[in-house]
UniProtKB/TrEMBL annotation:
GO terms for biological process: C4-dicarboxylate transport. Part of the tripartite ATP-independent periplasmic (TRAP) transport system. This is TRAP transporter small permease protein. The chain crosses the membrane at residues 32-56, 68-89, 109-130, 142-164. Keywords: Cell inner membrane, Cell membrane, Membrane, Transmembrane, Transmembrane helix, Transport. Pfam families: DctQ. InterPro entries: DctQ, TRAP_DctQ. Belongs to the TRAP transporter small permease family. It is a multi-pass membrane protein. GO terms for cellular component: plasma membrane. The keyword Zinc does not apply. The gene is yiaM_2. The lineage of its organism: Bacteria, Pseudomonadati, Pseudomonadota, Gammaproteobacteria, Oceanospirillales.
Length: 184
Protein backbone atom coordinates (compact mmCIF):
# COMPACT_ATOMS: atom_id res chain seq x y z
CA UNK A 1 0.00 0.00 0.00
CA UNK A 2 1.17 3.50 -0.78
CA UNK A 3 1.44 6.26 1.81
CA UNK A 4 -1.69 7.85 0.28
CA UNK A 5 -3.64 4.70 1.18
CA UNK A 6 -2.19 4.77 4.70
CA UNK A 7 -3.32 8.37 5.26
CA UNK A 8 -6.94 7.37 4.66
CA UNK A 9 -7.30 6.11 8.22
CA UNK A 10 -6.64 9.59 9.58
CA UNK A 11 -8.63 11.35 6.85
CA UNK A 12 -11.83 9.35 6.68
CA UNK A 13 -13.58 8.29 9.85
CA UNK A 14 -16.11 5.91 8.31
CA UNK A 15 -15.60 2.84 6.11
CA UNK A 16 -17.76 4.46 3.41
CA UNK A 17 -15.53 7.54 3.31
CA UNK A 18 -12.38 5.40 3.21
CA UNK A 19 -13.81 3.35 0.33
CA UNK A 20 -14.90 6.54 -1.42
CA UNK A 21 -11.38 7.97 -1.11
CA UNK A 22 -9.76 4.72 -2.26
CA UNK A 23 -11.96 4.75 -5.35
CA UNK A 24 -11.12 8.39 -5.93
CA UNK A 25 -7.40 7.61 -5.65
CA UNK A 26 -7.73 4.86 -8.26
CA UNK A 27 -9.72 7.17 -10.53
CA UNK A 28 -7.18 9.99 -10.08
CA UNK A 29 -4.23 7.75 -10.87
CA UNK A 30 -5.96 6.27 -13.92
CA UNK A 31 -6.84 9.75 -15.10
CA UNK A 32 -3.27 10.92 -14.48
CA UNK A 33 -1.86 8.20 -16.74
CA UNK A 34 -4.55 8.78 -19.37
CA UNK A 35 -3.57 12.47 -19.46
CA UNK A 36 0.06 11.49 -19.99
CA UNK A 37 -0.90 9.14 -22.83
CA UNK A 38 -3.20 11.72 -24.46
CA UNK A 39 -0.56 14.46 -24.29
CA UNK A 40 2.12 12.10 -25.59
CA UNK A 41 -0.02 10.93 -28.49
CA UNK A 42 -0.98 14.49 -29.35
CA UNK A 43 2.69 15.52 -29.37
CA UNK A 44 3.70 12.54 -31.51
CA UNK A 45 0.90 13.16 -34.00
CA UNK A 46 1.65 16.85 -34.39
CA UNK A 47 5.38 16.12 -34.74
CA UNK A 48 4.70 13.39 -37.32
CA UNK A 49 2.40 15.74 -39.23
CA UNK A 50 5.01 18.51 -39.29
CA UNK A 51 7.69 16.04 -40.42
CA UNK A 52 5.38 14.59 -43.05
CA UNK A 53 4.42 17.99 -44.45
CA UNK A 54 7.82 19.66 -44.52
CA UNK A 55 10.13 16.71 -45.17
CA UNK A 56 8.00 14.25 -47.12
CA UNK A 57 5.71 16.84 -48.78
CA UNK A 58 2.62 14.86 -47.87
CA UNK A 59 0.06 14.94 -45.11
CA UNK A 60 -1.46 12.59 -42.56
CA UNK A 61 -5.19 12.92 -43.20
CA UNK A 62 -6.40 12.23 -39.68
CA UNK A 63 -3.60 13.97 -37.76
CA UNK A 64 -5.50 17.20 -37.16
CA UNK A 65 -8.65 15.45 -36.02
CA UNK A 66 -6.84 12.94 -33.82
CA UNK A 67 -4.57 15.55 -32.22
CA UNK A 68 -7.67 17.67 -31.48
CA UNK A 69 -9.36 14.63 -29.92
CA UNK A 70 -6.32 13.89 -27.72
CA UNK A 71 -6.15 17.57 -26.73
CA UNK A 72 -9.83 17.63 -25.73
CA UNK A 73 -9.42 14.44 -23.70
CA UNK A 74 -6.27 15.72 -21.97
CA UNK A 75 -7.99 18.98 -21.00
CA UNK A 76 -11.21 17.40 -19.77
CA UNK A 77 -9.34 14.71 -17.85
CA UNK A 78 -7.20 17.40 -16.18
CA UNK A 79 -10.08 19.62 -15.02
CA UNK A 80 -11.02 17.42 -12.01
CA UNK A 81 -7.40 17.48 -10.83
CA UNK A 82 -7.56 21.28 -10.78
CA UNK A 83 -10.88 21.25 -8.96
CA UNK A 84 -9.43 18.88 -6.39
CA UNK A 85 -6.71 21.33 -5.32
CA UNK A 86 -8.67 24.55 -5.89
CA UNK A 87 -6.97 25.68 -9.09
CA UNK A 88 -10.00 27.26 -10.70
CA UNK A 89 -11.30 30.74 -11.24
CA UNK A 90 -12.85 32.24 -8.16
CA UNK A 91 -13.55 35.72 -6.89
CA UNK A 92 -13.06 35.89 -3.16
CA UNK A 93 -12.91 39.64 -2.55
CA UNK A 94 -16.01 39.56 -0.35
CA UNK A 95 -15.62 36.08 1.15
CA UNK A 96 -12.19 36.82 2.65
CA UNK A 97 -13.83 39.38 4.95
CA UNK A 98 -16.15 36.77 6.47
CA UNK A 99 -15.27 34.92 9.68
CA UNK A 100 -13.32 31.65 9.23
CA UNK A 101 -16.31 29.49 10.20
CA UNK A 102 -18.56 31.19 7.65
CA UNK A 103 -15.88 30.86 4.95
CA UNK A 104 -15.69 27.10 5.57
CA UNK A 105 -19.49 26.72 5.50
CA UNK A 106 -19.77 28.79 2.33
CA UNK A 107 -17.04 26.69 0.68
CA UNK A 108 -18.91 23.54 1.69
CA UNK A 109 -22.17 24.91 0.27
CA UNK A 110 -20.47 25.90 -2.98
CA UNK A 111 -18.95 22.42 -3.24
CA UNK A 112 -22.42 20.90 -2.99
CA UNK A 113 -23.77 23.37 -5.57
CA UNK A 114 -20.83 22.60 -7.87
CA UNK A 115 -21.38 18.86 -7.43
CA UNK A 116 -25.05 19.29 -8.35
CA UNK A 117 -24.06 21.27 -11.45
CA UNK A 118 -21.56 18.57 -12.46
CA UNK A 119 -24.22 15.91 -11.93
CA UNK A 120 -26.54 17.92 -14.23
CA UNK A 121 -23.73 18.24 -16.79
CA UNK A 122 -23.18 14.48 -16.58
CA UNK A 123 -26.88 13.86 -17.27
CA UNK A 124 -26.93 16.31 -20.19
CA UNK A 125 -23.73 14.76 -21.56
CA UNK A 126 -25.40 11.36 -21.70
CA UNK A 127 -27.96 12.85 -24.08
CA UNK A 128 -25.23 14.54 -26.15
CA UNK A 129 -23.30 11.28 -26.45
CA UNK A 130 -26.45 9.42 -27.46
CA UNK A 131 -27.39 12.00 -30.10
CA UNK A 132 -23.86 12.09 -31.62
CA UNK A 133 -23.24 8.35 -31.49
CA UNK A 134 -24.33 7.71 -35.09
CA UNK A 135 -22.26 10.62 -36.44
CA UNK A 136 -18.83 9.59 -37.68
CA UNK A 137 -15.65 11.69 -37.76
CA UNK A 138 -14.77 12.94 -41.25
CA UNK A 139 -11.35 11.26 -41.51
CA UNK A 140 -11.74 8.32 -39.12
CA UNK A 141 -14.24 5.47 -38.90
CA UNK A 142 -15.09 6.24 -35.26
CA UNK A 143 -17.99 8.04 -33.63
CA UNK A 144 -17.86 11.79 -33.11
CA UNK A 145 -19.35 11.15 -29.67
CA UNK A 146 -15.79 10.58 -28.40
CA UNK A 147 -15.53 14.35 -27.89
CA UNK A 148 -18.67 14.34 -25.74
CA UNK A 149 -17.61 11.28 -23.77
CA UNK A 150 -14.67 13.36 -22.49
CA UNK A 151 -17.16 15.87 -21.07
CA UNK A 152 -19.16 13.03 -19.51
CA UNK A 153 -16.07 11.60 -17.79
CA UNK A 154 -14.96 15.06 -16.65
CA UNK A 155 -18.37 15.83 -15.13
CA UNK A 156 -18.49 12.56 -13.18
CA UNK A 157 -14.90 12.85 -11.92
CA UNK A 158 -15.36 16.53 -11.00
CA UNK A 159 -18.61 15.73 -9.17
CA UNK A 160 -16.81 13.15 -7.04
CA UNK A 161 -14.09 15.64 -6.08
CA UNK A 162 -16.65 18.29 -5.22
CA UNK A 163 -18.51 15.80 -3.03
CA UNK A 164 -15.20 14.95 -1.31
CA UNK A 165 -14.62 18.65 -0.67
CA UNK A 166 -18.14 19.11 0.65
CA UNK A 167 -17.59 16.19 3.04
CA UNK A 168 -14.34 17.77 4.22
CA UNK A 169 -12.04 15.04 2.90
CA UNK A 170 -8.52 16.17 2.08
CA UNK A 171 -7.38 16.26 -1.55
CA UNK A 172 -5.11 13.37 -2.38
CA UNK A 173 -2.24 13.55 -4.87
CA UNK A 174 -3.00 12.73 -8.50
CA UNK A 175 0.46 11.62 -9.46
CA UNK A 176 2.02 8.44 -8.20
CA UNK A 177 4.50 8.94 -5.41
CA UNK A 178 8.18 9.08 -6.32
CA UNK A 179 10.66 6.60 -4.94
CA UNK A 180 11.70 9.21 -2.36
CA UNK A 181 8.16 9.24 -0.95
CA UNK A 182 7.14 12.78 -1.96
CA UNK A 183 4.24 13.31 -4.36
CA UNK A 184 5.06 14.77 -7.73
Amino acid sequence: MTPAWNRLGATASSPFKRSFLRGLIILDRSSYYAILVAMGMMTLLVSAQVFSRYVLSSSIDSADELSRLFFVWAIFLAIPHGIKVGIHVGIDALVTHFPEFLQRRLAQLMSWVGAAMMAALFWISIGAVASKWQEMMPTLPVTAALFYIAVLVCAAHSCLHLVAQALGLEPLPSAPERHGGTPS
